[in-house]
Specification:
Blueprint: E1 15-19, H1 44-57, E2 68-77, E3 83-91, E4 94-97, E5 101-105, E6 111-116, H2 133-141, E7 146-150, E8 154-158, E9 165-176, E10 179-188, E11 194-199, E12 202-204, E13 216-219, E14 233-235, H3 253-273, E15 289-291, E16 298-300, E17 305-307, H4 320-333, H5 345-361, E18 371-372, E19 385-386, H6 413-424, H7 448-459, H8 468-483, H9 488-499, E20 518-524, E21 527-531, E22 535-546, E23 551-557, E24 563-568, E25 571-573, E26 577-584, E27 591-601, E28 604-615, E29 623-629, E30 632-635, E31 640-651, E32 656-662, E33 668-673, E34 676-678, E35 682-689, E36 696-705, E37 710-719, E38 726-727, E39 731-732, E40 745-748, E41 751-755, E42 773-778
Parallel strand pairs: 4-8, 14-15, 15-17, 21-28, 30-37
Antiparallel strand pairs: 1-13, 2-3, 3-4, 3-5, 5-6, 7-9, 8-9, 9-10, 10-11, 12-16, 16-17, 18-19, 20-22, 22-26, 23-25, 23-27, 24-26, 27-28, 29-31, 31-35, 32-34, 32-36, 33-35, 36-37, 38-39, 40-41, 41-42
Helix pairs in contact: 3-4, 3-5, 4-5, 5-6, 6-7, 6-9, 7-8, 8-9
Length: about 775
Amino acid sequence: MRSRTVLAGTVAFATGAALAVGITSAHAASPPQPAAASGTPVTEQVRLAAADKAAASGFDALGKGPDDAFLRRQAITGLGGYSYLTYDRTYRGLPVVGGDATVVVDAAGHVRDTFAADHGRVSLGNLRPAIPAKQAVGTARRQLDSVATAGQAQLVVYALGAKPLLAYQVLVSGVRHDAPSRLHVWVDAGTGKVLFTREDVVSEAARGYVNGAVQIDTNGGVLQDPARPGLSCGNYSTRQTYRNGGTGTGTDLQTACVDAYYGVEQEWNMLRDWLGRSGISGNGSAFPLYVGLNDVNAYWGGSSGTFGHNSSNTAQATSMDVVGHEMGHAIDQYTGAGTAAENGLGEGTGDIFGALTEHYADNPSDPPDYTVGEEINLVGSGPIRYMYNPSTNGDPNCYSSSIPGTEVHSAAGPLNHWFYLLAEGSRPANGNPASPTCDGSTVNGVSIQKAGQIFMSAMNMKTSGWSYAKYRGATVKAAVNLFGASSAECASTKAAWSAVSVGPQSGEPSCTTVPAGDFSLAVNPSSGSLQQGGSTTTTVSTQVTGGTAQSVTLTASGLPSGVTATFSPATVTAGQSATLTLRASATATTGSKAITITGTAPSGSHTATYTTTVTTGQPPANDFSVSVNPASATVAPGNSVTASVVTATAGGSAQTVNLAVSGAPTGVTAAISPASVTSGGSATLTVSVSSTAAAGTFPLTVTGTGTAATRTATYTLTVSGGTPPQGCGGVAAWSATRPYVPGDKASYNGHLWNSTWYSTGAEPGAPGSWAVWTDAGPC
């Protein structure tokens, strides 16, 4: 083992200052960044509006049914000025698990690509569960050996199976198979059977080592980074945050915390300088770290990283590649739709970020390489994975149909192999080892930084059900976006995938020719009513997204029986708009239906969706009304509010009314419970405003869908700005970025909380915060 020279007595502490404790990294001269997309850059608001418009219009892959809506979850800005916006789909107001989508917008505000999970069209007869919510919670609890906490059951549409089903989603935490667990459980709301589980806690066999003399940023000597919100390091058992220092030995936990803390700082810097990402989360924050787990293990727990020791208990598991790997899981969880579905992709992602962090830091105490955990011989056989030749340890080099059933760490082999081939090539000339290819080909490397940029950009496109095949398609698109279609980077990306037996995908861009001009398509408004014997109009707009403007011919398909469509004009030059007129005969089929609008040009075709609801010329025999009381509210960030959704029978007999709410801005969630009532009944609208929600006034639309009619009401939400929300007699609301010490108080979720230990980012009431906060009761 190398000895440490970082000792508390050798440095001068200053709040927010960098502690010069030896060498700095040798990566100051970073390679050139990819060029930004062509076109005049626009503001973030314009880019967000373009993506929201594409989502509302059901553009291309975002095709939606008449009861679907998209709510923007997050927006991340990447390299080259590209923005990646993730949307959650709802069906009649319920979240659709597996219905998420991603929109890619360039710096000029052009929609460049769309991705959607393969959920299929959702069509459910009713939204009434056959089992009670408490039964679903009980089923979820039985998935753990012991339960610490169990959340409430949320009614959702589960669309990850063969057909969409009404289901409950429950989060439970505790112990499973002798390991910590934070398990998401989906229970069939019709049969009570478990449909699927997803584990947030990702474990990895551990390696630990000492980084030598390094430079770190502290908060007055406390391992709590003032420049990287959320990053701290403390003792696993006591949750006490350590100060910089320690004995420099492999068994000293304070020293181990310095190692882990330094590793995450380097990973943060790598993400910023090389990959254009803001923090581990993508939104300017990191997560707490804990050392001292009495196990040969290290794991990402969904909101923090925990590190144990090696098998001989001579060193802690805080080597840079292990730390980088676990935070790679965090990056994966907080990007796009979250951790990719197919076996091996999550573990390979962790290994890739471990290698990227090592190469960025370029620490002479641990020269960068493509092996995992090489600094400590955990079981007497060297590294646990070899990225340049996974078969060295018995892992597969090549993709095959057996990968989905392979143990997750072993199944990372093809992804690790692909990344090495893309970064270094099959026959590197820089001293790195040669790498065999599955097809006998020769692959030229593009550098680890460019390989990381391509992979990170593809991660930003993730949707549910992500697979090896989808990663190939996304990385090729990323290479085209960042470096151009005729670039060596595009060619090597394709060649590296073929070299690990992942073949070309449908719709994959060519790397030999520059794409012709392209365009996007949008509809505004994207839905409307149409009476029998009447007509309605909407505007179909086009936009040039690449090359020169071209002629676009417009057509409509999927029309209800008795409805015709005409465009004026029927052909436009990209950048122009047309008017779509829908006319219904006196006998047109009533009901809602999604109409597909297709624009066809020499470069290809794109689609958008318009939902029309055909009604009779007279009010339906059985009618109802919907209202919200109160109809408006002003809410401070970090708080929530409720209102009553009231229905009434306006004619004929009472009927079932399905309720949904749409229009919530980023940082605001809105839900109605119950999701269906009999007309004359009421439900509760709950609006929750996050601490990061932007100030402004936003109309939310409450929609009631009955057997023969749809009625709406508007609820006006005003998110206040100014000072942070106050509660509990003037006690400030809890902040995810503020450091707390014992004795501090904070208000959160309507309760007063007392701080019992040092923390940053530990959410009051969360399962992992039991040793940090105590609940002083509601206020």
